[in-house]
Amino acid sequence: MRFIYFAVAITFLLSPILAEDNPDSDITLVHRWSLNEDENGLLQISIDSEEEIAGLQFTLQFSDPNIFLGTPVTELSNDHVTVKSKVDSNELRVIGFSLEGKPLDLETPILSIPMLSYKAREQSVQLMIKDMVASSPKGTKINLRVSDGIIYVVPTLPKKFKLEQNYPNPFNGNTRINFDLPEDAIVNLKVMDILGNTVKALRKGIVPAGFYTVLWDGNSDDGSPVSPGEYLCSLKVGANYHTMKMVVLR
User: Fold this and answer.
1) Which own/partner contact pairs does 13-16 have at CB distance under 8 Å and 24+ positions apart?
2) How many CB atoms within 10 Å of residue 115?
3) Could you give the CA distance from residue 237 to residue 215 in angstroms, rounded to a whole number?
4) Three-class SS of 63-96
5) Full-prediction pTM beyond 0.90?
């Protein structure tokens, strides 16, 4: 039977998990999966991640009996990845991994999956993404969560509380402040002058466990630029209290 390549609007149904993300927040996750259709009818899976990934598995479900998902293929830069797939009547299960533990090249789509139809169509196609898991080169599991139609890769939870030195430092403009939370906690992150007066409140309230990055633009709470010099970044989490010095240049 001849298949027909086709271009349609695709609706991805994603089960929400821990939907906490605010697109306007200055705290960002650094890992994200995306699934897009190109002009040739190929579903392309990409991963935007600062953490090395060496394996993944997932299932795509579809309810339309006229839809067929073909065998996934890798880009040349990921030809070291072994891909296994199985198609049932309404779902495609995929596992991709590197036997050598070599990280995936994340600059290009990880996989391309042909999407075919027994007949020409115009209406939208619904795909359910489920059971998505990724693994590091060491074989440790990388958890996922879904929020507002985006699948986020959540790094393995940190083992201890940590406040990292801001970067860049010294800085003139924006600087990044990274902190790790091994468990959900009430957080108070702020910038102070050398006398201990609060200059800028960066984060206050309950924050889920994870790895976080906060941007500080060098402005005070009233929106005015701070004077050049030394400042303290203070992070209080329960009984834990860390500070670090930051230098602002003008």
Assistant:
1) 13/126, 13/127, 13/128, 13/129, 14/128, 14/129, 14/146, 14/149, 14/151, 15/130, 15/146, 16/146, 16/147
2) 25
3) 19
4) CCCCEEECCCEECHHHCCEEEEEEECCCEEEEEE
5) no
Rounded-to-integer distance, Cα 183 and Cα 126, Å? 36
Maximum separation of any 2 CA atoms in the chain, in Å: 78
User: Where along the chain do the CATH 2.60.40.680 domains lie?
Assistant: 4-154
* Angular region, 135: left φ>0, alpha ψ -120 to 50, beta rest: beta
Return the half-sphere exposure (C-beta side, CA atoms, 13 A cut-off) of residue 192: 15
**Per-residue pLDDT reduced to its tens digit, 12-26:** 333 322 223 333 333
CATH topology of domain 162-248: Immunoglobulin-like (2.60.40)
For residue 238, what are its two tokens? 């329960």
Q: What percent of the chain has pLDDT over 90?
A: 32
